[in-house]
Amino acid sequence: MDTRHLFDTLARQEQPPLSIDVNQAVAAGRAIRRRRRMAAGAVSALSVLAVTTTTWLVLPQTGQRDGIIVSTPTIATPTATTPTAAPAQPSGARFKRMKKKYPPIEDITFVPEASVWMWLSWGPDPGGKRPILCGTFGGPDGVSCAGFPPLSGKEFARTQVAAAGPLSAKQVRALNPDATTAQLRELIQEQKRTNTLGKAFFGVARNEVHRLTAVAPDGNRVSGAVVRNAGAGLGVWAVKYPPGFTTATLTFTDANGKTLQRLPGD
Amino acid sequence: MSPDEEYTAYVSGRLPWLRQIAYPLCQDWHRADDLVQTAITRLYVKWHRACAADDLDAYVRTILIRVFLAEQRGGWFSRARVTPLPPEPPVQGDDHDLVMDMRRALAAVPPRQRATLVLRFHCDLSVEQTAHALGCSAGTVKSQTARGLATLRSILGAPDSRLSHVEEC
Fold first, then answer.
1. Transmembrane residues, as ranges (chain A) (predicted)?
2. Which end of chain B is more exposed for a tag (fewer CB within 10 A), N or C?
3. H helices within chain A, ranges in order?
4. What is the share, in percent, of chain B residues with pLDDT greater than 90?
5. Burial of A144 (C-beta count, 10 Å sphere; 0-12/13-18/19+)
């Protein structure tokens, strides 16, 4: 007799009736599957929550990235599906001179929505009392720097510059040297009416301001960009109108969407 | 045929076979039924994967062995009876003493060695197949087999008679 025979004898000797229930196994198996699905769902939900929290905690504040502030649109625009890299700073002599004369308090901010570079400065005198906002569209128009009085108690934002809008009569004439006076007047009126070049505004705002929207009389909206903590306890903002968008009310809101101030955007 | 029907048809046909593997492992029909019940429940949970396996019987046998070993690790307090209490087995005659000796000897063999012996000599598996079922190397199967046989011989007290035909691995 070998081991195999011993096992056979063992299994053959006693065979009580079967007490195994297949239906019970099916029911128990279904319950296990259901519990595992619920656990997997819970784990997925927790993972999403953890990633969201980590992202919120780890990423820098809106607009601050590696030393250069790049604005992010306050409302996602349909075309802005990928982050916009900050272009190189303007290399013109005027820009460099103004940057040296009015050193930035914080980093220089680029707002891709309006293609404008902005910074706040205390001016040539480090102990200056009035902050100065400098801005440039990077083109041949150069850099404009202007000091401004502190925002009053009820003032959350202020328009500093409205630029890149309709060309001046001199510019229109330079572009159309053969046009008659009547034709030039008509061209100026036309480009004012249609905002062919795209009107743009920028200015300063308190750090409470999180969002800027330009609302046209017909209800159309354009999202602006707000960059907080740009220096001197203030942020900067900019908005550029698309062609055909000539006038609007600039609405500044806080993090909860509450309207803080409205400014004319003509 | 739906997956549930396939499962029910397969398990219903393989219950006696599974039971005969489970019994030498635990020497108790009640516990053997519990083992099989747990194993077929796990099989239901993994039924889609089991259907895709090359050898479904081997897949189920591996589940059964692993359920047994996991239960041994869990301790007696964690064992749960999942089937109704079966009636007492009939007491029967000719080889009753031999069966009693065999049960006593197997009970003295450690669980993993016992599982190795069952797979090797009751299920007629090769060393490699046993190693696959237990999740260990072929060398481990050989050593576990040798030690299990030595324990059986020492308890049955007939090293040169009953177990003389066993090929050492």
1. 39-59
2. N
3. 3-13, 22-58, 93-101, 169-175, 181-194
4. 31
5. middle
pLDDT tens track for A114-133: 777 888 888 776 666 778 88
ipTM given for this complex: 0.73
Q: Kindly tell me if the per-residue pLDDT of B77 is higher than 60.
A: no
DSSP A164-212: SSSPPHHHHHHH-TT--HHHHHHHHHHHHHHTTT--EEEEEEETT--EE
Q: Which tokens go with B104?
A: 């006593």
- Burial of residue A33 (number of CB atoms within 10 Å: 0-12, 13-18, 19+): middle
pTM of the model: 0.46
Chain B partners of A11 at a C-beta cutoff of 8 Å? Answer: 20, 23-24, 122
With beta carbons under 8 A apart, name residues in chain A contacting B87: 16-17
Which residues are CB-contacts of A156 (< 8 A; sequence separation ≥ 6)? A205, A206, A208, A209, A252, A260, A261
By C-alpha distance, which of B11, B86, B98, B114 is closest to A29? B11
**B chain contacts of residue A17, beta-carbon cutoff 8 Å:** 86-87
- What domains, with CATH codes, occur in chain B? 1-89 (1.10.1740), 92-169 (1.10.10.10)
Instruction: Tell whether A20 lies on the interface with B, counting CB pairs under 8 A.
Output: yes
Most A-contacting residue of B2, B19, B100, B161 (CB-CB within 10 A), to test interface: B19
* Distance separating alpha carbons of residues B149 and A2, to the nearest angstrom: 11
Amino acid at A77: T
